[in-house]
């Protein structure tokens, strides 16, 4: 069922954020910053855009989603639980021994996870392979691939970008979670990543730049990508790392750190307040 | 074995792949700008819609293959061994082996027999790298007949496979009706003076050595260990029990390849002395294939010398 109401989608994004904090707090391990920055993107994809059915996670003609920045698994797991692929109770087991919710997503362990990821820069090539399959068989499904801005410093990303363009993969939509930060600092300082839009354009991509926390803009961007023929699209989603939790926002130290009890309580209460305000 | 009838295993691969393509429409082939050398060009000519040339981007190629496999395609991926197992190691590890995707990596130009291109292009560590990966099957065929059987057989296994192929033409060892089984070595002869475990291009060298040694009254058996993983423990132990001496010979580093595999089995099951012939912790160099086999002491003469010493 497709949700079109902006407030409803905002609430879902908020639920995803609560799920992220719960997981990372319970595990005392994980990556909250980049997970929080992509929560709105995932809410729109899974609840407004993708042709998927949580009851049929293996359906051949379903749309695919590849979380290339696999360390943001808490965002994906919270989204899948919210969508009904598995019980929200399972989120408590994140990163624990014998849990199916591994530190990074595992295609063979979690229903709804379309590809194992974790080693940065690899998910886009896999998405290209999926999109080529769709074209080869005229299967008609779309492939969405979420990459981080730090991640696109990997050379393999640009190999994959070249392939997507060469193969005219208009069924492939890359989403760049452009929060501007990576572990060691700002992306322009650490890896020298600049002129992202121009880079993708020169490789033959349809580039759409949006506020990655604005639900309406995201819906518009995904719809616009769908209309574009003969070329792949990239949505550059300008986001805030740690979005939704005041003390995590734009703080690079929250890339891969778990909150303590006090911080956890504050984070949850901030997010619950937002939810309340929306209702 | 007719030493006059020579075919390179990469050629056998290209032909077998094309036959397989006719039988199975799920077969897709990927190459990284080396299709003329890896012989995937034979398939490409016949099935252009199922052939993807990704350009010089081996890491991307492995990922695209993984993506195709998630949909149920059976990708056969080719480039030189050094660029497959070496350059794209992490992609093979994380995007193919860990998710256990059905990708067949058929790497050509393995070993010093690449020849004139020299060390940068002579992969001597691939058996070692590939066999440590969980879910991976590792095959190193020795001739045309075996390669053709392997290429079809691995399409029936639903997990990753690495096949190590060679550049130069080597003797056809097996008749068309020879039976093969993955995980089973093939014993040639019943001599009890020594066992020579060989794989890939060195099997023919070992068989030539066996013939000459026979004339000198030394009776050896040769075991073609084309299946590196799974390894045939049974035949290794049996030969160690039945013969006085054990040697291994491979166009690969003595660290981590066939020699190490045999030693691992014997140290646990039946400890005996093993002499490992291969590239001894060194890089390769330019030269003709046969000159290099001799230089690195993995040819017929080196085997004879080792067994007579």
Q: What order do the helices and strands of chain B follow?
A: EHEHHEHEHHEHEHEEEEHEEHEHEHH
Strand content of chain B: 15-25%
Structural class of the helix and strand makeup of chain B?
Answer: alpha/beta
Described by the principal axes of the CA atoms, the overall outline of chain B is globular
Low-confidence stretches of chain A: none
Total strands of chain A: the figure is 7
Radius of gyration of chain A: 17 Å
The N- and C-terminal alpha carbons of chain B lie at a distance of 26 Å
Name the poorly predicted regions of chain B: none
* Count of alpha/pi helices of chain B: 13
Number of strands of chain B: 14
The gross shape of chain A turns out to be globular
Strand count, sense and barrel status of the largest sheet of chain B are: 7 strands, mixed
Which sequence of strands runs across the widest sheet of chain B?
3-2-4-5-7-6-12
Keywords:
heterodimer; A: 279 residues; 5-stranded parallel sheet; B: 309 residues; alpha/beta; Rossmann fold; 2 domains; 5-stranded mixed sheet; globular
């Amino acid at each position: 069922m497709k949700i079109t109401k902006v407030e409803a989608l905002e609430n879902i994004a908020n639920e995803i954020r609560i799920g992220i904090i719960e997981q990372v707090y319970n595990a005392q391990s994980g990556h909250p910053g980049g997970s929080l920055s992509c929560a709105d993107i995932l809410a729109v994809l899974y609840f407004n855009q993708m042709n998927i059915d949580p009851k049929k996670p293996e359906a051949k003609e379903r749309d695919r989603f590849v979380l290339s920045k696999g360390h943001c698994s808490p965002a994906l797991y919270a989204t899948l639980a919210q969508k009904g692929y598995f019980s929200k109770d399972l989120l408590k087991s994140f990163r624990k021994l014998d849990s199916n919710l591994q530190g990074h997503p595992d295609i063979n362990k979690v229903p709804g996870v379309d590809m194992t990821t974790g080693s940065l820069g690899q998910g886009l090539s896999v998405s290209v392979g999926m999109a080529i399959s769709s074209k080869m068989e005229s299967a008609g499904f779309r492939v969405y691939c979420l990459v981080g801005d730090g991640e696109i410093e990997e050379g393999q990303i640009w190999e994959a970008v070249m392939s997507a363009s060469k193969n005219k993969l208009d069924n492939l939509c890359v989403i760049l979670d452009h929060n501007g930060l990576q572990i060691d600092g700002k992306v322009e300082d650490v890896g020298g990543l600049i002129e992202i839009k121009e880079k993708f354009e020169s490789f033959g991509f349809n580039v759409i730049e949006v506020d990655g926390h604005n639900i309406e803009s995201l819906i518009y961007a995904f719809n616009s990508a769908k209309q574009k023929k003969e070329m792949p699209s990239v949505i550059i989603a300008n986001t805030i790392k740690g979005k939704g939790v005041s003390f995590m926002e734009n703080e690079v130290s929250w890339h891969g750190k778990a909150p303590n009890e006090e911080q956890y309580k504050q984070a949850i209460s901030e997010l619950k307040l937002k939810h309340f305000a929306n209702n | 074995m007719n030493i006059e009838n020579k075919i390179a295993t990469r050629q056998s691969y290209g032909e077998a792949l094309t036959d397989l393509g006719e039988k199975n429409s799920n077969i897709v082939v990927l190459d990284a700008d080396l299709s003329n050398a890896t012989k995937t060009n034979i398939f490409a000519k016949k099935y252009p819609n199922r052939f993807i040339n990704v350009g010089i981007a081996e890491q991307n190629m492995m990922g695209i293959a993984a993506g195709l496999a998630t949909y149920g395609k059976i990708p056969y991926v080719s480039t030189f061994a050094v660029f497959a197992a070496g350059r794209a190691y992490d992609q093979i590890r994380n995007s193919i082996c860990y998710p256990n995707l059905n990708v067949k990596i058929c790497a050509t130009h393995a070993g010093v027999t690449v020849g004139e291109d020299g060390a940068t292009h002579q992969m001597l560590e691939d058996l070692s790298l590939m066999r440590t990966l969980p879910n991976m099957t590792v095959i190193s065929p020795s001739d045309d007949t075996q390669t053709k059987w392997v290429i079809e057989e691995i399409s029936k296994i639903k997990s990753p496979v690495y096949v190590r192929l060679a550049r130069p033409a080597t003797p056809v060892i097996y008749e068309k009706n020879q039976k093969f089984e993955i995980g089973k070595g093939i014993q040639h002869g019943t001599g009890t003076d020594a066992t020579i475990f060989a794989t890939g291009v060195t099997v023919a060298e070992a068989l030539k050595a066996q013939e000459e040694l026979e004339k000198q009254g030394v009776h050896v058996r040769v075991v073609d260990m084309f299946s590196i993983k799974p390894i045939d423990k049974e035949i290794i132990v049996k030969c160690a029990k039945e013969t006085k001496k054990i040697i291994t010979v491979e166009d690969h580093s003595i660290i981590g390849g066939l020699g190490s595999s045999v030693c691992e089995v014997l140290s646990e099951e039946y400890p005996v002395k093993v002499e490992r012939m291969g590239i001894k912790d060194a890089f390769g160099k330019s030269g003709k294939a046969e000159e290099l086999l001799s230089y690195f002491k993995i040819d017929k003469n080196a085997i004879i010398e080792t067994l007579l010493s």
